[in-house]
Amino acid sequence: IRELNQINGFYPNLKKENFVYSTKNKRNFIFFKCGIEKSSAGKNYFAEDQDHILIYSGFSIDPTSKINAHRAEDILENFDQRKYELEGQTSLIRFNKRSFDLDIITDCLGMEQVYYYHKDNRFIISNSVHLIEKTIGYSQLDLYGASYFLSIGWVASDNTLIKDIKVIKGGEHWFWKSDKQKINKKTYFDLLNNKIDTTQVLKNSNIKLLSKKLSEYLLNIEQNFNLECPLTGGFDSRLVCAFLIHNKLKADYYTAGSTENNDVKIASLIAEKFNLKHTIYEINYDYLFSNWDNLVEKFTLQNNGMASLFQIFNVLTDNESIGERGVRLATYGAEFSRETYNRPFLWRAKIGKEDVYNYLCQRVLVNRNGLLTNDSIKIKKNFMNSFFDTYLDKGVDSRLIPELFYIFERTGRHHANHRGINKNAADIFSLFCTKTYLKEAFSVHPLDKASNPIHYKILKSINKELFHLPNTHGRWPIQNRKMRQIWGNVKPIIKKRLSSTKSKSNSGSNSKPRISAYDHRRILETKLDEIKSVCLDQTNSELWSLIKRDKFENIISRKNKIENIN
């Protein structure tokens, strides 16, 4: 309870009401009952009746609109009928006060993460790693989680950065019966039930039905909440924007970055064209650096240490609240619309399992310019072997495994690890991490997604004008499958020759780099010495079993260019 009181300070929008405490037969349950200030539509996360207590985290909707799924009372009343039907990124916990039975349900990808500690008969479950860590009274680095973060870019599998604290996978229902010590586990959503037909193409009728369902989800939310929508020059936010415009839904659009940034320029063009309410947030670097320690601590705890510190800019954006707490329409999972790790060449020839495995490792794993030790390399290779073999044992075509890796790891863990960045400012909802979208996107053959991304088809069907506006990627993919195949073979040759020509003429020095929304270089220039001392002062850290200290000192030296350090 003491730790709950302390952690409350890192989520300033939380208002503490009271604790719920129950004990029976040496089983203790403590719930922290809380609400959110400035919440609209009576949204709450806690409900209690004569027999049960229900807590939920995240945001969900009922696709049938039979219940208000943003209200814990409605979920509790209809729990048994609707528990697997809700859409969104949410986790549910129901506790029976009489029998002490307990249910825990994660969303289809586990985006709203639930962490747990299990030793002997002791279970601690929370949506905060920090809280569990403080409660069990010790903290030891999880070398596997740390190694994944270093070599892949995120904490993968079911690991966190703290040993013995794990995350429950997506699409699962865990339940305890009062007379049993054992956990019962059920997978209620399995994407692999969608068999891929190698000739399947997403038809116009499917596009219309998918667009209709996703539009209904947005209408459902807009009836009760203010909508916030990111607006950039990319494909993903544009697709969400198209849905909102098509359905005449009001939203507060926002873009972060300087006026020279490409995202800001294109977003401003779109906003002017369609008369959208649009706010541009420029980063206050003076505020960032003068409040560095406090912001870093807050950012780290909100994300359980599993988000890159370069994402700290989001904390600054959230400090400038757009308005009453609403629902922020994220674009997590939108990449499923097109080819991701599942490249077309995997399907154009007889590719063996070993070839696919080598491609995936090459695509995902990095060695950080020789920074990682042999132990770290061994850990990451064992993880890739395990992931690959797990799906081979399930009878999955090896060529589909890269796409599954993207869905379950790149999105289900990487993006989920970063969700805490914005949770203090708004509830987060992504159309693309719903069961409806996942099943449709996964059922389309990779070759069709490569030449005809779902983005393209939906945009052309609901807003051709928005489709033809510029984007930061320069152009849409070639739509003809045969022409795309030819271009795929010719492109590397052209790039190689152009690179050679630029090198000879030294014309590369005149090229203009793309201006990022956030100036990572500025963080390094200002905080490099502090970062260096913080790292190198930890002489006994277990991280040095994963990182070559001498290599690290050389890389982070002031003699090195900031671009190289970055």
CATH secondary-structure class of the largest domain: Alpha Beta
Residue share in helix:
40-55%
Tally of separate domains? 5
N-to-C CA distance = 41 Å
Shape: globular
Question: Can you describe this structure?
Answer:
The protein folds into five domains: 2-114 and 168-189, no CATH class; 193-338 and 415-472, HUPs (Rossmann fold); 344-408, no CATH class; 481-513; 520-565, no CATH class. The radius of gyration is 24 Å and the shape is globular. Helix content is 41%, strand content 16%. β5 and β6 form a beta hairpin. The protein starts with a helix and ends with a helix. It is α/β, with parallel strands linked by helices. A six-stranded antiparallel sheet has the order 3-4-5-6-10-11. The longest helix is centred in the C-terminal third of the chain and has 25 residues, at 481-505.
Task: Output the keywords.
566 residues, alpha/beta, Rossmann fold, 5 domains, 6-stranded antiparallel sheet, 5-stranded parallel sheet, 22 helices, 41% helix, globular
